[in-house]
Structures are given as structure tokens and as C-alpha cells.
Design goal:
single chain, 72 residues, elongated, two-stranded antiparallel sheet, 2 helices, 35% helix, alpha+beta
Length: 72
Amino acid sequence: MKSIKTIGLIIFTIVITSAFTTPVDLELKSLLNNKVQLKIPKDFTIMPEEMIKVKYPSQSRPAWYTLTNQEV
């Protein structure tokens, strides 16, 4: 009987959690000279050079996609 309550609680938790998650709109992006394609959130943009310099002080900086909305 205890395991039935536990399973019920797990199912209830999954249902409630999924009800409050927001879907993320994805778009296909080509990277590395079109050798790789990734689905990333539509709100992501290439990180500005100034932000890359702050986050990655090394001279060999990568190019990164980032969320421009700073509320997250």
C-alpha cells in the first residue's frame, strides 16, 4: 500500500511540474562552416565581443551564443 501512495505521489509531482513549465521555441543553427547543426532557443544570439572579453579574459576566446534577456 505504501508503494502505491509513493507511485501516486510521483505521478502527481510529474503532472504538476509539467503543467507549469513553459515550452521553449527552438531553431536550427548551423555552426562550424555548416558541419554541425544544433537546435537552440530562438532567443539566443551571438554573445557581444565586450561580454566575451569579460567572461573569458584569455586571448583565445570562443564565440558563444547567449540569452540576451538578462532576466534569467
